[in-house]
Write a structure and sequence with these properties.
alpha/beta; 4-stranded mixed sheet
Length: 173
C-alpha cells in the first residue's frame, strides 16, 4: 500500500510516517493489495489533531476522519472506522476487495442492513452560482444541495463540511 502523509499548520516526524505505514500495512493489507493508495491529512484544530484517512482501491474510496489529542490515537481510530465500514458492507464489497479479504474468520460486530430507498424526489435544476446554491441550501435547512452551475452548465452538489466550511462536488470533464 502506498501511503502519503500531508499536514496543514503542523510538522510531523519521519517516525510518525513510518508508524503510519506500518499500522496501515498491518491492519489493512488483508483487504487491499499493493495497488491501494492511502492518503493521510493531519491538521491541528483547537489543540487537537484532526486526521483524515482516505484509501483508494479498485475505483472505490474509503474515508474516515478522527479528532484526538494524539496523532497515533487518531490514526488507530481512523483505521478502525474504515475496517468497520468494510465489515458492515462486506457482501457488497467482496468483489472489489482482495480475493482472500474475508476468508479469515472474524466476528461481525455490525449486522449488514439492506439498502432501502424510501423516497424519490424530483425537482427542477435551475442555473445559479455556488453562493446562491449555498444560500438556498441554508434556507432549506439541508446539509447538501444539487444545482446547475450558471457558468459551466454542469450539475454540481454543494454541501456543508463537518468543519462548518462548504465544499462543491463537480463532475470531472
Amino acid at each position: 500500500m502506498k501511503v502519503t502523509v500531508n499536514t496543514k499548520k503542523m510538522q510531523i516526524s519521519q517516525a510518525f510516517t513510518e508508524y503510519a505505514q506500518n499500522r496501515l500495512d498491518a491492519k489493512l493489507n488483508k483487504f487491499f493489495d499493493d495497488e491501494a493508495d492511502a492518503k493521510l491529512m493531519l491538521m491541528e484544530l483547537k489543540g487537537k489533531i484532526k486526521l483524515e484517512l482516505t484509501v483508494r482501491y479498485n475505483q472505490m474510496i474509503y474515508r474516515a476522519e478522527q479528532l484526538a489529542v494524539d496523532k497515533n490515537d487518531a490514526l488507530d481510530a481512523a483505521i478502525d472506522k474504515i475496517i468497520r465500514q468494510i465489515r458492515k458492507n462486506k457482501t457488497r464489497l467482496e468483489k472489489r476487495l482482495k480475493d482472500n479479504a474475508f476468508k479469515q474468520e472474524f466476528v461481525d460486530t455490525v449486522e449488514e442492513t439492506d439498502i432501502t430507498v424510501i423516497r424519490y424526489k424530483q425537482f427542477e435544476l435551475r442555473p445559479m452560482t455556488v453562493e446562491e446554491a449555498i444560500l438556498q441550501m441554508n434556507m432549506l435547512g439541508h446539509s447538501f444541495f444539487m444545482f446547475k452551475d450558471a457558468e459551466t452548465g454542469n450539475t454540481n452538489v454543494v454541501y456543508q463540511r463537518a468543519d462548518d466550511g462548504y465544499a462543491v462536488l463537480q463532475p470531472k470533464e
